[in-house]
Every structure is written in C-alpha cells, then in structure tokens.
Amino acid sequence: MNTLWQHLHHELDKRRPSIDDLLNAFGVILEILLFYLCARVAIRICCKAIQRLMRSSAVRFDTRRRDTLESLLDNAARYVIYFIFILASLRTLGVHIAALLAGAGIAGVALGFGAQSLIRDVLTGFFILFEDQYGVGDLVKINGFTGTVVHIGLRTTRVKAWTGEIEIIPNGQVQQVTNYSKANSTAIVDVGVDSRTDLDRALQIMRQVLEELKSERDDVVGDVQVLGVQALTGPEIRLRVAVECLPSAHFAVERIARYRIKERFDREGIGLAGAAAPATPGGEASGKAGRAEV
C-alpha cells in the first residue's frame, strides 16, 4: 500500500506545473491582452483617420454619401484589424499560422459552395455603395419595408421605420429599392367637398393655403399647381392642388395643408363631403337656413 501511495505521489509531482510553466502562461496571456489593446487603439486611429479624410475638403461628397462611405470603411477596417489580431494571438499560442492558412485555403474551396450567400451579400453591398442606390439617412422602401437607412455594412443594411422597428436586410436579398430622397417630392393635397360647393372659391382657398406654406417653409420649393377637379363620385367632388418640396418633405407639407384648408373651409362655410354643413359667417348653419326658406 505504501508503494502504491508513493507511486501516485510521484506522478502528481511530475504533473504539477512548475514556476516556469506558470510564468510562460502568464506571459502568453499578457501578450494576447497587449495585442487586443493594440487592435483597439488601431481601430480607433483608423476610424478617426477615415472620419477626417471623409470630412476634408478634398472629398467632395454630399452628407448622405459621405456618411455611407464612412460607415462602410469603418466596418471594413474593423474586420481587417480583428483578423490580424486573431492570427497574432494564435501564433502566440503556438499555432503554426502558415499551416493554418494553407489548410484554410483548402477548406475555403470546400466551404465555397456554402458561403455563396455571404459572398453575394458582400458583392451586392459594394454595388449598392458605388452605384449610389441609397445611403445613410435616405428614406427608402426595400422589399416592401419603408424606413430610414441607419447603417450600410459589408453584409447587411439596417432600415429604421418611423415607429422604431429596425429591419436588418442582407444585401444579397435586396430585390427592389424605392428611394424617396434622391429627388424632390411633390405634395399632393386632395380634398373632397360637397357637390353644392362653389368650386372656384374652394380652389382659390386651397391655393392661398399652399402659397402661405411656401412663404413660411424652406422645404417648399416649387410653384403651387391648382390641378382642379380630380374625381366626381356621387355627392362628392374631389379637388386637388400640388406643390414641389424637398425630398421626403411632402408628408409634413400635406398634413399641415389639410389642417389649414379644413380650418379655412369652416370659416368660409364650405362643407366637406360627407360632413355636416358648417356654420356660415352669419352664425346660422346653411342647412337650417335652407329649411327656413322652404
């Protein structure tokens, strides 16, 4: 029994790490941490350099395209630096990098078929950028989802809806894009009035409202167009006016115009289709006055 115990004790002593082993392990961990800190500093320096370059006077891009390029270059710099950090860490751990890269090349051929979607996403991302299909800050509709582009990466595009949802779309799956920020928009205001309405007076009020908006707002840039009667549907006559606005500004202009036209119609005694007859400037409802005459 004493012989067996001595044998076990001897084996444990041989397997016990020495001071040199502990110092070597500590040195490896410290070196990896140093590589990580260097990688973080390199990423910060690259991002600052990219930002300074993109915002310099030598680069003449608009804000939208500049932000898009800056986001994509930051993304690419992070991938490259982290890849170098991983290779340096593996080499510190004693892994043969040359053999690993050679094996990765052979494995890459085998995995190429499975990575087709990733390659398609990256290539499509480059085409989206260089063809300037859309950029960060654009209001777009991609595959039926409408929102503002908040990020364009090498692989995905992030679009934020006005209600807060963020849709992450792989670039390779971008099939159809509608960009609302590439050109000026048109605010189209349709108002349905009662068939007994003085149409000339109603159209004049609608014109006046849009002319006032044009004088107040810098995002209204075109001339007011009175398009006239848009539709006749039974007791309703639909009138339309339009005005050119800056990209994506037509939504706000249309909402404000409808509100002011409704207020002005109420003051002028012009009734909307399907609504009760408004009070006339004299104070009595036009419907009551008609019944009194009968």
Q: What attributes does this structure have?
A:
294 residues; Helix Hairpins; SH3 type barrels; Alpha-Beta Plaits; five-stranded antiparallel beta sheet; 8 helices; 18% strand; disordered C terminus
Describe this structure in words.
- By secondary structure, this protein is α+β, with helices and mostly antiparallel strands.
- It folds into 3 domains: about 15-110, Helix Hairpins (Orthogonal Bundle); about 120-180, SH3 type barrels (Roll); about 185-285, Alpha-Beta Plaits (2-Layer Sandwich).
- The chain contains 8 helices and 8 strands, in the order H-H-H-H-H-E-E-E-E-E-E-H-E-E-H-H.
- The chain has helices at about 1-15, 20-55, 65-90, 95-110, 115-130, 200-215, 250-270, 285-294; strands at about 140, 145-150, 155-160, 165-170, 175-180, 185-195, 225-235, 235-245.
- Helix 2 (about 20-55) runs antiparallel to helix 3 (about 65-90) and helix 6 (about 200-215) packs across helix 7.
- The radius of gyration is 34 Å and the shape is elongated.
- The relative contact order is 0.07.
- Residues about 280-294 have low confidence and may be disordered.
Q: How would you concisely characterize the structure shown here?
A:
By secondary structure, the chain is an alpha+beta fold. Helices cover 53% and strands 18% of the residues.
